[in-house]
Amino acid sequence: MTRKNTPEENAAAKIRKRENCRRNSAIYRERHPERVKAYEIKYRAEQPEAMKAKRLAYKTRNPERYKAVVAAWRNANKVRLYAKRMARKLKKRRQILDYLERIQKGRCAICRQKIAGTPHIDHIIPRAMGGSSERSNLQLTCAHCNVSKGAKDPILYAREIGRLI
Ligand SMILES: [Zn+2]
C-alpha cells in the first residue's frame, strides 16, 4: 500500500519542481540565446497590449530608471526616429495638399489661374506674423504669387494687388 504524502511533503515537492523548472529554463536560455530572442520578438509583436501593460507597470515601479531607459533608447535610435518623424510630416503635407487641391479645384488662391507646376503651400497669415500651420491658415498658390506675397500682411497684400480698397 502506498502512503499518502503529507502536506509538507507536497509543498516541498512543489518547490523542488519549481526550482528544477527555473534551472532548466536558465540552461535553455543560455544554450539558445537566438531562440529566446526570436521568441521575445514574436511575443512583442503578437501581444502589444501585454507589452504596454508591462511597460506601464515598470514605469510606475521605477520612474527614474524608466526615464533613463527611454532616453538611452532614443539616443541609440536617433536615425530611425528622425525617419519616422519625417514620414509623418510628409504624410500630413500630402493630406493638406490633397485637401486644398480639391477645395480650390487646382487654382491659385490669389490669381485664380490653374496652377501649373508644383503648387506652393502659402500661410494666409504669414508665420512671421504668428500665423499657424493648421489647415485653416493654408492655401495653395502658384509659385509666382507665393513669392510676390512673401511674408506680407494678407490685407495689405490684397490692397497692393487691387483686391481690397
Ligand atoms: Zn497665382
In terms of topology, how is this protein built?
Blueprint: H1 7-31, H2 33-46, H3 48-61, H4 63-76, H5 78-103, E1 120-123, E2 138-141, H6 143-149, H7 154-160
Antiparallel strand pairs: 1-2
Helix pairs in contact: 3-4
The structure holds zinc ion.
Residues 108, 110-111, 113, 141-142, 144-145 line the site of zinc ion (ZN).
How does this structure look, described?
Helix 3 crosses helix 4 (63-76). The chain is mainly α and 165 residues long. Helix content is 65%, strand content 5%. It is rod-shaped, with a radius of gyration of 32 Å. The chain has helices at 7-31, 33-46, 48-61, 63-76, 78-103, 143-149, 154-160; strands spanning 120-123, 138-141. The chain has a two-stranded antiparallel sheet with strand order 1-2. The model has no long low-confidence stretch (mean pLDDT 94). It folds into 2 domains: 10-76, no CATH class; 91-160, Orthogonal Bundle (DNA Binding (I), subunit A), CATH 1.10.30. It is built from 7 helices and 2 strands. Zinc ion binds at residues 108, 110-111, 113, 141-142, 144-145.
How is the largest sheet built, in terms of strand order? 1-2
Round the Cα radius of gyration to an integer and report it.
32 Å
What fraction of the residues are assigned to beta strands by DSSP?
under 5%
Instruction: Give the integer mean of the pLDDT values.
Output: 94
